[in-house]
Design goal:
The protein is mostly helical. It is 45% helix and 11% strand.
Length: 91
């Protein structure tokens, strides 16, 4: 699962998805959920949009889509080879 709306804490530097962070706050939890982090006062006022993570997610999705298209094309080409490459042989 990828970040849909990544935000980063200005205090500890950890990145969260805004929806998950809001869910954490709805349970009245204000400690950073990253194990070992000492940020005990996490709040919406200390997070900012994480543009770097947005870019990383976008690049990863683009690479995955390109790999899937290549795989689909390779499979299509293999199917064509098995069927005689699309040529009809007349005897």
């Amino acid at each position: 699962m990828f970040f849909e709306d990544p935000v980063r804490s200005k205090v500890c530097g950890h990145t969260y998805d805004r929806k998950g962070l809001n869910q954490l706050f709805s349970m009245r939890k204000t400690k950073c959920p990253i194990p070992g982090c000492s940020n005990n006062g996490l709040s919406l006022s200390q997070v900012e949009v994480d543009d770097e993570m947005k870019l990383k997610v976008r690049r990863h999705k683009t690479r995955e889509e390109a790999a899937k298209k290549k795989k689909d094309l390779d499979e299509t080409m293999d199917d064509d080879d098995e069927q005689g490459g699309g040529y009809t042989v007349l005897e």
